[in-house]
């Protein structure tokens, strides 16, 4: 039998509403990569190939090929760097805080913007990217974010970084700036020791709780707008089944992915091993290719089926989907 971790209890209303899908035993097939390095596996998931063979990210390739993308704020990494998944899209931005995204290092930032804008009027790639960035600065500066308040009784906890970032995502969606994709990160999952028991105050419980508590206000805030939003939660790989001598789990390959949204078919999807000890080194066997999840989202939620092989670096499921998403 499968069950939700008790720390995931806050998201149960969306499970009960049929707006939460779970894919277990999901990961990178050995034919693509059998790495157990977090850093290498993250690159595989974000680029759908190795860092050496694939220069751009899968979200970047989607944004570059989609007919439904315009403006300077279509793709954002909510961080101080552009995540690998968005590298290669020439308008991708790293925005760690939408409230103070600006040109810094000058006494008069407004004058500095005007001067820099004048310098970025050529047709070259550097001039173009500079102009796009300054355009995004101007757009964000023109928005009164204080007037875009949470809806449907949503309350974003100030002590949860994921919640704070997703609040800004919600505001960007409501500001109608042309946002199409956002990458948000929640770290702290490298649990080699002291995972603890499944009760509050224990390391793994509290980390899972931070994820669930961070997601809930965003889902609540979206309300019926969630019909136009898909929230995909993935990790580059899972943990081993049994704990090690330090009370932790080491690098495993099979993991879990979650999808939330009004266009998501609630339920559990994909194959699952009949004996969970049958994987390499005692971890969960990868039975569901992570690219199959991406492909279904690209087709049914993002309307970019024609470009799936190019976006996923040659992978084509041929319409053989898991069934977790509805056509947009």
Task: Write a concise keyword list for the protein shown above.
9 helices; 9% strand; alpha/beta
Structural class computed from helices and strand pairing = alpha/beta
Question: Which series of helices and strands comes N to C?
Answer: HEHHEEHHHEHEEEEHH
Q: What are the segments in which pLDDT stays under 50 over at least 5 consecutive residues? A: none
Provide the β-strand percentage band. Answer: 5-15%
Helix percentage:
25-40%
Q: Cα distance, first to last residue?
A: 32 Å
Please tell me what the overall shape is: globular
Question: Could you characterize what this model shows?
Answer:
The chain starts with 11 loop residues before the first helix and ends in a 17-residue tail after the last helix. Helix 4 (109-119) packs antiparallel against helix 5 (125-141) and helix 6 (161-174) packs parallel to helix 7. The model has no long low-confidence stretch (mean pLDDT 91). The protein is built from nine helices and eight strands. Strands 1, 5, 6, 7 and 8 form a five-stranded mixed sheet that branches. A three-stranded parallel sheet has the order 3-2-4, with helices on one face. It is 31% helix and 9% strand. It has 328 residues and is of the alpha/beta class.
Quick structural gist:
The protein is of the alpha/beta class.
Task: Furnish the topology, listing elements before pairings.
Layout: H1 12-16, E1 20-27, H2 38-47, H3 58-65, E2 75-77, E3 93-94, H4 109-119, H5 125-141, H6 161-174, E4 181-183, H7 203-222, E5 231-233, E6 255-260, E7 267-269, E8 288-289, H8 290-301, H9 308-311
Parallel strand pairs: 1-7, 1-8, 2-3, 2-4
Antiparallel strand pairs: 1-6, 5-6
């Amino acid at each position: 039998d499968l069950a939700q971790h008790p720390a995931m209890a806050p998201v149960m209303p969306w499970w009960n509403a049929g707006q939460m899908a779970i894919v277990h035993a999901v990961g990178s097939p050995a034919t693509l990569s059998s790495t157990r390095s977090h850093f290498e596996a993250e690159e595989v998931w974000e680029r759908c190939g190795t860092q050496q063979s694939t220069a751009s990210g899968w979200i970047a390739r989607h944004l570059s090929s989609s007919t439904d993308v315009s403006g300077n704020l279509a793709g954002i990494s909510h961080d101080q760097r552009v995540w690998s998944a968005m590298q290669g899209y020439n308008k991708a931005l790293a925005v760690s805080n939408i409230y103070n995204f600006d040109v810094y290092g000058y006494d008069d930032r407004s004058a500095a913007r005007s001067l820099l804008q004048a310098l970025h009027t050529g047709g070259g790639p550097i001039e173009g990217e500079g102009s796009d960035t300054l355009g995004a600065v101007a757009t964000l500066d023109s928005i009164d974010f204080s007037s875009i308040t949470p809806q449907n009784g949503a309350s974003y906890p100030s002590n949860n970084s994921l919640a704070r970032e997703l609040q800004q995502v919600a505001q960007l969606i409501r500001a109608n700036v042309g946002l199409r994709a956002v990458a948000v990160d929640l770290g702290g999952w490298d649990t080699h020791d002291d995972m603890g028991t499944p009760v509050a105050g224990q390391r793994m419980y509290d980390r899972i709780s931070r994820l669930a508590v961070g997601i809930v206000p965003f889902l609540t805030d979206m309300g019926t707008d969630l019909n136009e939003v898909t929230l995909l939660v993935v990790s580059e790989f899972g943990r081993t089944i049994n704990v090690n001598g330090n009370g932790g789990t080491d690098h495993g390959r099979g993991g879990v992915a979650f999808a939330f949204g009004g266009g998501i078919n609630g339920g559990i999807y994909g194959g699952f091993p009949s004996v969970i000890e049958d994987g390499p080194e005692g971890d969960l066997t990868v039975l569901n290719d992570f690219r199959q999840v991406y492909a279904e989202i690209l087709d049914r939620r993002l309307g970019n089926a024609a470009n799936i092989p190019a976006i996923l670096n040659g992978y084509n499921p041929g319409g053989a989907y898991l069934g977790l998403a509805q056509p947009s």
